[in-house]
Specification:
Order of helices and strands: HHEE
Mean pLDDT: 77
Number of helices: 2
Distance between the termini: 25 Å
Strand order of the largest sheet: 1-2
Shape: elongated
Length: 84
Amino acid sequence: MWSRSFAKLAFSRARKREELLQATEKNLAKIRDAANRTKAPLRGRAKIGLRAGRIINKHKMAKPFSANPVLMSLSVFFIPRSSG
């Protein structure tokens, strides 16, 4: 009985984590596109970093992502979860 409920909980948590990762990636792609667009681009390390930080904090996904705002763009790296 207990193992079944733990399995359901683990499945639910894994699904929720995947949904949050996808939502974060989608929103970070919007910021990257805003920094790379030709008309009224998002410029400046501080502005890009603040906007990326706001998205990462919104979804509470700071651990799996490493955002590196450079002067003219945003590079985001996904840090894979270690198994174990």
